Automatic annotation (TrEMBL):
Residues 4-64 form the Conserved virulence factor B first S1 domain. The lineage of its organism: Bacteria, Pseudomonadati, Pseudomonadota, Gammaproteobacteria, Vibrionales. This is GntR family transcriptional regulator. Belongs to the CvfB family. It holds the Pfam family WHD_CvfB. Residues 219-276 form the Conserved virulence factor B-like winged helix domain. InterPro entries: CvfB_fam (IPR014464), CvfB_S1_st (IPR039566), CvfB_WH (IPR040764), NA-bd_OB-fold (IPR012340), WH-like_DNA-bd_sf (IPR036388).
Length: 278
């Protein structure tokens, strides 16, 4: 089944001077991939990975360009124009993404970036964006397990921390005291389910809980040392920023990890960094 507003893999069924047609099935028939997007050497029956959307004439069309966001996902997009219908955001395709006034929590302004959720509007049949996320998030029961990995999108900064969309389906919270690195609205990153509370609210973490995160990091440290000839200019006195830039982890976890490796006599810790013991 063709998924409009998402990437699809479709076979080439016809070649014409202005491009090729792809098999869109019974619902959409042949879908045009304009000549400027056709990969060199493309032949009949080749399968191409394309994005399907509506052009300026509201006809279904294909492109090999990847948009900044797809239907069912979030994107941090820049407003490039506004009119009496709503705001238009650049999502990396020739036709800008419409966010109707009715889908704006605050009136959008040209030149500013906004986090939006993309969906198919059933009334118009168009791909549109919204900042009224709650219509689409937390609509299904959350059945996550503690320690489960998830794709997170930072949606809002609060006094407690950062409100994140979990796999685009549920809300969760990263507590500010437990975060590290630079977080900002629209950032996408991997995280973990820390705890699902009795009230249904979900606590998140950027690291595996307990021993698992230390074991994973220990393996990364040893691998990094091996690649760098047995030495890394970082130790337990290094700044949190330097540690995060190398290993994407907190200083506390890093100190615990290299402490364990030191006790196992796998490394030695010196003033200028850590050394691998062969």
């Amino acid at each position: 089944m063709i998924k409009v507003g998402q990437m699809n893999t479709l076979p080439v069924v016809k070649e014409v001077d202005f491009g090729v047609f792809l098999d869109g099935g019974d619902e959409y028939g042949n879908i045009l991939l304009p000549k400027r997007y056709v990969p060199k050497g493309t032949q009949l029956d080749d399968e191409l990975n394309v994005f399907i959307y509506f052009d300026s004439e509201d006809d279904v069309i294909a492109t090999t360009e990847k948009p900044l966001a797809e239907v069912g996902d979030f994107g941090l997009l820049r407003c490039v124009n506004t009119n009496k219908v709503g705001a238009f955001l650049n999502w990396g395709l020739p036709k800008d993404l419409l966010v109707p006034f009715s889908e704006q929590r605050i009136r959008m302004q040209e030149g500013r970036d906004y986090l939006v959720y993309l969906y198919m509007d059933r009334a118009s049949g168009r791909i549109v964006g919204t900042t009224k996320f709650n219509k689409f998030i937390d609509k299904t029961p959350a059945r996550y397990k503690s320690g489960e990995q998830a794709e997170l999108t930072v949606a809002e900064s609060t006094d407690l921390g950062f409100k994140c969309a979990i796999n685009g389906l549920h809300w969760g919270l990263l507590y500010r005291a437990e975060t590290f690195g630079k977080l900002f609205i629209g950032k996408k990153l991997k995280g973990y389910i820390k705890h699902v509370r009795d009230d249904g609210k979900i606590d998140l973490s950027l690291q595996k809980a307990g021993k698992g995160k230390v074991d994973d990091l220990a393996e990364k440290v040893i691998t990094a040392l091996e690649k760098k000839g047995g030495f890394l200019p970082v130790n337990d006195k290094s700044s949190p920023e330097q540690i995060f830039s190398l290993f994407r982890t907190s200083k506390a976890t890093f100190k615990k990890t290299i402490g364990g490796l030191y006790k196992q006599r796998k490394i030695r810790i010196e003033n200028d960094g850590i050394y691998l013991i062969n």
